[in-house]
Write a structure and sequence with these properties.
It is a single chain. With 145 residues, the chain is an alpha+beta fold. The radius of gyration is 16 Å and the shape is globular. It has a single domain, classed as Roll (2,3-Dihydroxybiphenyl 1,2-Dioxygenase, domain 1), CATH 3.10.180.10. The protein contains 3 helices and 8 strands. The structure holds zinc ion. Residues 5, 7, 52, 76, 78, 126 line the site of zinc ion (ZN).
Amino acid sequence: MRIDHLGIAVASIDESLAFYRDALGLEVEGRETVAEQGVNVCMLPVGPSRVELLEPLGPDTPVGKFLSKRGPGIHHICYRVDDIHEALVRLKAAGARLIDESPRVGAGGHLVAFVHPNSSGGVLVEISQEPGPEHSAHPSQGDNS
Ligand code: ZN
């Protein structure tokens, strides 16, 4: 396991890049809209990990509610696992409160699931698995299913 990324809730990705890109010197790896989660996402690699800037699409989205309740700041920590299904079974057996009982597709086509902050010292936890061939958000041309 390793830290895949730190999710940081911001009001504006463009404004935040003045710090993370221009002042701190990180490079933007990619930007995308994850409509299902109501966010614009901007990934900035830091070694093998990344900073994930999260800008809400509206006030009624999860990140929008987080911003109005707590202001900008660390939104979640994402741990990379080899097998997200196995990780969810283990978490559930240990009594962790799962937000997602089964994985869904997140930014970059990764399979992700969230664990409630009540179970993890007050920090929202995301677990993530590299997209497999059958889960890729960018289907290969050879897909003849
Ligand atoms: Zn994330």
